[in-house]
């Protein structure tokens, strides 16, 4: 094929590059997130059918906890900017309340909106760079995805593990669904962590501008003859991409194993000591929050304190 070029030590066709670094990660993240959401709601439903409404309530609560946090921050901003406009504030509060129920679906909508651009970039040379730029367009879905991993998937895994460890009666359907939910929660956390690490890493790298395609400059024909300097740059980018792919896979496996051990240890501790666990967790979060408040040189506001509480919870996990 004309589009097949030897980039570094391997042949890296453009369609394969797009498939590996855009289509597959987005599809995998979509499947993991959707599976996590569906299995959690299914577990909550089975808890209610199993005469355990309290477990069902907490399962649903953690599903909507990231959306509730976003709602609190939005309402705070609304009051701080429009405190004198009561009808306006009430109207938007009603809109935000409705959005809370649909907000967990927002990442799915985002994936389904940008995935066709990645597929078009993979299947056709026409407007490939523009399509990939659409895939990399900044979105609040990434922020919500990060919140979902630590405010929903993490406590959900611990909650279902505690229920399994404390349960004295066997229910094969419920237990199987709980294990499925726990597996999707682990995958969701690991995927979010490596994605966040990769994004943070690329922000400070000089090669970030090369990440759209294995070539830097736009031409009428992207695969036409190039200068030796450009070919050398493309070799560096291709080798970088190959190493980054292997690094991502290894880091994903490492985080998966690390999270499994840590979260199971927390769940086992909580199932044995129970109330003491929640007391110690609250003390830990308060201590970390106070430390961050005291060490922060800037003026504090409600949003900053919420962020500190969130990071104190992450440090617990």
From TrEMBL:
Domain of life where this protein originates: Eukaryota
Main location: membrane
This protein's UniProt keywords: Cell membrane, Membrane, Transmembrane, Transmembrane helix
GO process terms (BP): apoptotic process involved in development; engulfment of apoptotic cell; phosphatidylserine exposure on apoptotic cell surface
Subcellular location: Cell membrane; Membrane
Membrane topology qualifier: Multi-pass membrane protein
Recorded GO CC terms: plasma membrane
Transmembrane segments: 12-35, 55-76, 88-109, 273-293
Similarity remark: Belongs to the XK family.
Protein name stated in the entry: XK-related protein
Organism: Darwinula stevensoni
Phylogenetic classification of the source organism: Eukaryota, Metazoa, Ecdysozoa, Arthropoda, Crustacea
């Amino acid at each position: 094929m004309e589009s097949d070029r030897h980039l570094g030590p391997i042949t890296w066709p453009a369609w394969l590059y797009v498939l590996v670094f855009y289509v597959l990660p987005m599809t995998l993240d979509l499947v993991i997130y959707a599976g996590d959401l569906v299995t959690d709601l299914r577990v909550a439903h089975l808890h209610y059918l199993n005469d355990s409404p309290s477990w069902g309530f907490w399962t649903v609560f953690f599903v909507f906890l990231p959306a509730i946090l976003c709602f609190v921050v939005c309402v705070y901003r609304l009051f701080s900017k429009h405190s004198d406009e009561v009808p306006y504030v009430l109207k938007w509060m009603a809109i935000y309340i409705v959005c809370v129920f649909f907000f967990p679906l927002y990442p799915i909508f985002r994936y389904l909106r940008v995935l066709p651009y990645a597929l078009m970039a993979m299947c056709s040379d026409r407007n490939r760079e523009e399509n990939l730029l659409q895939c990399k367009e900044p979105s609040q879905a990434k922020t919500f995805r990060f919140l979902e991993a630590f405010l929903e998937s993490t406590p959900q895994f611990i909650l279902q593990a505690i229920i399994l460890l404390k349960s004295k009666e066997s229910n094969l359907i419920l237990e199987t669904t709980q294990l499925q939910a726990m597996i999707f929660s682990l995958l969701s956390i690991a995927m979010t962590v490596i994605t966040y690490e990769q994004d943070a890493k690329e922000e400070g790298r000089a090669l970030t501008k090369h990440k759209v395609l294995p070539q830097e400059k736009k031409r009428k024909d992207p695969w036409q003859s190039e200068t030796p300097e450009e070919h050398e740059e493309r070799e560096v980018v291709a080798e970088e991409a190959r190493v980054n792919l292997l690094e991502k896979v290894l880091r994903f496996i490492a985080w998966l194993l690390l999270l499994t051990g840590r979260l199971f240890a927390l769940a086992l501790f909580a199932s044995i000591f129970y109330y003491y666990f929640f007391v110690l967790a609250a003390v830990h979060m308060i201590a970390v929050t106070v430390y961050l408040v005291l060490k922060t040189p800037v003026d504090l506001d409600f949003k900053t304190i919420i962020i500190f509480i969130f990071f104190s919870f992450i440090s617990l996990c």
